[in-house]
User: Which sequence fits this backbone?
């Protein structure tokens, strides 16, 4: 399935694994930092990981509100000439 959609998973090499193509670990660490920062921001504000919602419409409205909040905060940061990742205190 992963090859059907062009998804490539990267895992660290183990001692018994054959050497693969070179991987830019710095790039991967940077991407992971961006993803973890965004998830942390969403979880801090809207309990993203444990939303406590019982219906699909409730989940949909919670996700829409979180994504709207995140978009507005990123826009404010970029307009102020700051990084869009560091959203500060809520």
Assistant:
């Amino acid at each position: 399935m992963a090859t059907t959609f062009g998804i490539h998973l990267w895992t660290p090499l183990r001692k018994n694994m054959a050497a693969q193509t070179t991987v830019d670990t710095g790039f991967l660490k940077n991407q992971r930092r961006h993803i973890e920062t965004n998830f942390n921001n969403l979880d801090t504000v809207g309990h993203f990981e444990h939303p406590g919602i019982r219906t699909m419409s409730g989940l949909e409205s919670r996700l829409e509100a979180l994504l709207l909040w995140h978009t507005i905060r990123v826009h404010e940061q970029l307009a102020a000439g700051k990084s869009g990742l560091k959203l500060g205190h809520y």
Notes: The chain has one domain: 21-90. The CA atoms of residues 13 and 20 lie 8 Å apart. The first helix runs from residue 2 to 5. The helical segments are 2-5, 25-46, 56-79.
